[in-house]
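TICKET: design request
STATUS: open
ATTACHED STRUCTURE:
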């Protein structure tokens, strides 16, 4: 009996043990759901991936819509089987992707999409993915790209006309949203019921406001008086999305030109003066700036197309047994 046959016999024996009728009280949390050559897919793997991709626990998904649950489960199981087949081939060919290559790929993604590290982490969090999981995904994608380059002999060519067509058809994808760069001077209120303190605070903010109107430097006054965020940087609080800006601030700066300041804004916890440093209008990234990112998108689409054709052929030759 050959090595591969012995491994398959062992896996089938394990499968048989999992299939025995144990007492109902011993609820099955894990079992084999598929055999792929000399590897296997477990129920734990399947359920974990379903939670990642649907954002729902499989039990909850089944309760809400059993047909959708069964369809989703099959699609994700097929995906896991493909991954097992691909990973085996990657190991056979000795394909390796270094941490440096992963870092460079992520930096390129950030550069092409005008993302900071904080922007990327926030976007991943909204998708229910950690940064470490994302790094692993990028590594897998790079391994698959090397595999396709090795297996597919014909070179992938992306034509200029296809890049331009994609740009024209997906202009919304390249819109840069408008933002407001703001600076702030903030004086806190410690005891709102203390008339003497409130009178002193009002006088102080009026003096600051008058000095600003006379042309004194906002940054210098912020460093001197402000007790709010960004005081040591001249009061700069960053580039903010108008859609999520505090309504009182948005109203106070309405109609201001770049470089102008608002009147004092009185709040329960303190007083603010806001400077509109610059208003960035929404626009569409120029074609030349977006060209490289579009090339990568189209290249990846072609890689995926060839990958799925290749994996389909590989699946037809592999030993696969689904155990539902």
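STATUS: resolved
RESOLUTION: sequence designed for all positions
ATTACHED SEQUENCE:
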């Amino acid at each position: 009996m050959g090595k591969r046959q012995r491994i398959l016999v062992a896996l089938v024996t394990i499968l048989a043990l999992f299939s025995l009728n144990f007492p109902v009280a011993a609820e099955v949390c894990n079992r084999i759901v598929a055999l792929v050559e000399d590897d296997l897919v477990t129920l734990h793997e399947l359920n974990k991936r379903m939670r990642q991709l649907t954002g729902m626990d499989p039990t909850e998904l089944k309760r809400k819509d059993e047909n959708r649950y069964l369809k989703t489960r099959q699609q994700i199981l097929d995906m896991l089987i493909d991954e097992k087949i691909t990973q085996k081939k990657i190991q056979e060919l000795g394909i390796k992707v270094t941490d440096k290559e992963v870092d460079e790929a992520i930096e390129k993604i950030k550069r092409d999409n005008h993302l900071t590290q904080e922007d990327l982490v926030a976007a991943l969090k909204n998708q229910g993915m950690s940064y470490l999981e994302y790094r692993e995904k990028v590594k897998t994608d790079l391994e698959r790209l090397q595999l396709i380059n090795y297996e597919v002999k014909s070179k992938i060519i992306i034509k200029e006309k296809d890049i331009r067509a994609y740009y024209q058809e997906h202009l919304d994808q390249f819109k840069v949203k408008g933002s407001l760069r703001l600076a702030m001077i903030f004086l806190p209120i410690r005891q709102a019921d203390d008339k003497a303190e409130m009178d002193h605070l009002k006088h102080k903010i009026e003096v600051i406001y008058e000095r600003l109107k006379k042309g004194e430097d906002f940054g210098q006054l912020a460093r001197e008086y402000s007790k709010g965020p960004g005081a040591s940087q001249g009061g700069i609080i960053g580039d903010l999305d108008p859609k999520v800006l505090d309504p009182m601030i948005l109203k106070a700066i309405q109609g201001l030109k770049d470089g102008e300041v608002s009147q004092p804004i009185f709040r329960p916890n303190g007083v603010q003066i806001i400077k509109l440093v610059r208003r960035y209008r929404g626009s569409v990234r120029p074609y030349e700036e977006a060209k490289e990112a579009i090339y990568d998108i189209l290249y990846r689409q072609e890689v995926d197309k060839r990958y799925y054709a290749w994996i389909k052929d590989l699946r037809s030759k592999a030993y696969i047994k689904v155990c539902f």
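CLOSING REMARK: Strands lie at 32-36, 39-42, 175-176, 179-188, 236-240, 265-267, 270-280, 283-284, 320-322. Residues 152 and 306 are 8 Å apart (CA to CA).
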